[in-house]
Design brief:
Layout lengths: L10 H22 L12 H4 L1 H4 L7 E4 L1 H25 L1 H6 L9 H14 L13 E2 L6 H10 L3 H7 L4 H6 L1 E8 L2 E8 L2 E4 L8 E2 L5 H13 L10 H9 L14 H13 L4 E4 L8 E10 L2 E7 L24
Antiparallel strand pairs: 1-5, 2-6, 3-4, 7-8, 8-9
Helix pairs in contact: 4-6, 7-11
Length: 329
């Protein structure tokens, strides 16, 4: 009787080999002074998808490089502020209602300062990323963005999924690693992001000039065939793609033992599990990230992350989740 032994390369060996292939491709691009354009995910309607193209707000669509997106955002901010300033200056109804009211004379100057600040900021793949850097665009893909909020402070996961390489900036070539069909796959993307010609974006919002959310979102769009297909998905699917680990889903109802549920939640969080919550309420995002779980003064507190950029409008006594307080959780 004979048998054979097949040795499969370890993930590190596989990624190292692929990384070398990327570096060789980058060398050829630099030599020819060209940017990488992904032939498998072309800059056309096929990559946008039918569902997206049917929205009047999203057409026409252009594919922009990161520096173009940043400059466009700064210019749009300035134009919007200028229009608002002009409207307020000429609005007699406001003055008639309150003769003592005067518009902020420094409004335009402040906008100009912010505009110049944004333009002078160099874009990055990620730079000290936080959950509040994840903002939803036109896509209904909170099922993906909620898990991305969870990995924002998990450096080992984020850097594994999206390695920050020098060829991203000078060659426009991006490497994204996702766990698909039981094995790690490496996707090669270009860094061009689709955008409508208006102020609004169709991709995840680029906050503080960081592109990691938009690039990972683009990788998921490539896996699913186009951006329009991102309207359907689950947090379990996203977590598995990002970590390579199985997920557990637990339905919660009024009959559950609250004490037992809280102990389980505390245990999962303290052991480093990534957590998300899903609700059927139609007035809030259906998928939310769970960023912290703790007890304080006898109260059970859960810090929820919402990828929707709209402010929460209900009255709450707890302080808002702000940049300055983010280190508390």
């Amino acid at each position: 009787m004979s048998f054979s032994v097949i040795f499969h390369p370890s993930p590190d060996d596989k990624f190292g080999k692929i990384d070398n292939e990327f570096q060789e491709h980058a060398h050829r691009l630099r030599k020819s002074r060209k940017l990488f354009v992904d032939p498998e995910f072309p800059h056309n309607k096929d990559s946008i998808g039918t569902n997206m193209e049917e929205s009047e707000d999203l057409t026409p669509v252009a594919w922009w490089a990161p520096h173009q997106l940043i400059n466009n955002y700064a210019t749009s901010l300035l134009k919007t502020t200028a229009a608002m300033h002009s409207y307020i200056e000429n609005n007699k109804a406001m003055r008639a209602k309150d003769p003592a009211w005067k518009p902020d004379s420094n409004l335009f100057e402040k906008a100009l300062h912010n505009c110049n600040k944004i333009r002078s900021t160099k874009w990055s793949v990620y730079d000290n990323p936080w959950p509040f850097h994840v903002g939803e665009g036109y896509l209904d893909d909170a099922w993906l963005l909620a898990p991305l909020m969870c990995i924002a402070r998990r450096k080992e996961i984020l850097e594994h999924v999206l390695p920050d390489r020098d060829y991203i900036k000078d060659c426009g070539m991006v490497q994204v690693r996702l766990f698909i069909n039981g094995k790690w796959e490496v996707l090669k993307l270009d860094y061009f992001i689709p955008k409508s010609y208006g102020v609004r974006t169709i991709y995840a919002n680029i906050i503080q000039c960081q592109l990691w959310v938009a690039l990972i979102e683009k990788a998921f769009a490539k896996v699913k065939g186009n951006y329009g297909n991102l309207d359907e998905g689950s947090c379990e699917e996203a977590f598995t793609y990002l970590t390579g680990c199985p997920c557990r889903s637990q339905k919660i109802d009024k009959e559950m033992d609250e004490v037992k549920l809280w102990k389980e939640l505390m245990g999962y969080h303290s052991n480093g599990y990534l957590l998300a919550a899903i609700t059927s309420r139609c007035d809030v995002n259906s998928e939310l990230s769970i960023l912290d779980v703790k007890e304080h003064d006898g109260n059970r507190l859960i810090l929820i992350g919402n990828s929707c950029v709209d402010k929460y409008k209900e009255n709450v006594e707890l302080p808002a989740y702000e940049d300055g307080r983010s280190t508390i959780f």
